[in-house]
Amino acid sequence: MKPSASIEAPEQYFERMFANQSDFQSKRLVIGGIAYALYYLETMIDPSQVQDYILRPLLLRPQDAVHDVVSILDYAETEQLEEASQAVMNGKVVLHRGKESRLYLLGVDLKKERSINIPINERVLRGSNEAFIESLDTNLNLMRKLINSTEFVIKQYTLGRLSQTKIAVMYMKSIAKPEIVEELDKRLNSIDIDYVEAPGFIDELIQEKKSSLFPQMLITERPDRARAYLMEGKVVIAATGSPDIIILPVSFWSFFQSPEDYQISWMLGSLLRFLRICCFFITIALPAFYVSVSSFNPELLPSAFVHTLQSSLKYITLPPVIEALSMILLLEILREATVRLASPVAQTIGVVGGIVIGTVVVQANLVSTTMVIVAALTGLASFIIPSYEMSSAVRLLSYPAILLSSFFGLFGLVCFLMLIIIHLCRMHTMGLPYYKPPFGLSDVKDTLFRLPLWTLRKRPTGTAAGDQTRMRNPRSWKR
Fold this sequence. Notes:
The chain is of the alpha+beta class. It is built from 16 helices and 12 strands. The model has no long low-confidence stretch (mean pLDDT about 85).
């Protein structure tokens, strides 16, 4: 719908459109014999900017064209009332000048955002201490500062019929595969939903394997980590209102990498990464292994250890499977309680609750001391995994492993681990294999281990279609 040259018609449209909005304001002014009308939401604009950059310049130069007078960078014109009403909802002032059919959209929105802080969930001892915040513009600014190149592309989308959430897709034009960018564009444009809660909604709506426990997209709050994956040809998605961004496509091994691996020596980084992968299997298999050896296969352990295990189980009333399930469930309850409570109280609950409950259940002969050690080691192993999504998935997988071990012993545990590997091999993300066994020399360089940087000369072939050379002569000083 196009506005009329008169002031009254657009005014009636806006007052009808925002009739139920108590913060909507419609102001009429006459400056130099010319009628003006301003439409805005007073809770969304900065009054000082309206005064300094709109009203005062108009008072000084009322006869000049609006685009020559108003000194605002976020400036646009439209002849569509629907577009103007959406601009009002976005925090802009709509200016209508009498005897003109066009409307001026002036960005004077009030910006209230928290300052850039340190990462909360991905803290490292060495490396950057900047984290994303809820403002999309600020997050894009952080990425622009880290990647000062014209090859860095940002494409913006609007998702949600009612929420009108702004989404930004970032990638390196000379590195990323065009097929991945096109596929992501198709999936984002196909989303038809009232509102978007990022990153969870986006993750679930565009992922391929809907029923898998394993995360198929990496979520991070660190700009340096996002930059590292962009340089490998991956795509990054950021959204308004979320301090977390999505990285895709990623492989299974990406969830065990940490930015700190590249800030320390390659030998120590390789050791820590291999330790995380070992903890993945410890979290899944250790409680189930305890159930199988205590109920079915004690001959797998040395005789001295078997005698110790049997003596600890001598007066225990519960069977091993109930022991394991109850202790793992108790560990989950303690973890969830410490997450939901305030930090000082959470630390007290975690320490006191763990010590008191662990001591009481052992003294009451409900759980053996060996099971308490197994549960503690399982919990610690799950916390070593850098990705919260992968850590949560691994903890859930320990329950079916315990149940299968209680029915079939070690055979059930082995079959369950084989099913997990088969499931991983069948998964794809954005058309690329999710799990590729790192048996080749090119794969093992930055998966199971982190070899020296001067050996990582090529980018991953799966995501980098353009410039695959990461470094050409990194140690040219050495003769």
